[in-house]
Amino acid sequence: MTKSDLVKRLAAANPHLYLRDVEKIVATVFEEISLALTRGDRVELRGFGAFSVRARDARQGRNPRTGDEVEVPDKQVPHFKTGKELRDRLNQEAD
I need a surface site. Which of 16, 60, 72, 91 has the fewest CB within 10 A? Predict the structure, then answer.
């Protein structure tokens, strides 16, 4: 599902809201999650999951085209862990 698909579904489920308002709401939620992660905070959406930031150490990598060694600097990467309710829903459908 893309962001525009999400906006369309939310707008269809809430006909009393204008499409532009739903777009603003979705953009604001994503922006706040991004800002919180930038600050190093953890974002938890009960029943859905939690976003956090993890550190990756510097390492030696390889250029796949040439095979030359490349220094990969340390960096921060986003991490998502699903919530129990979401995992249960996904696994229930598989049964």
Answer: 16
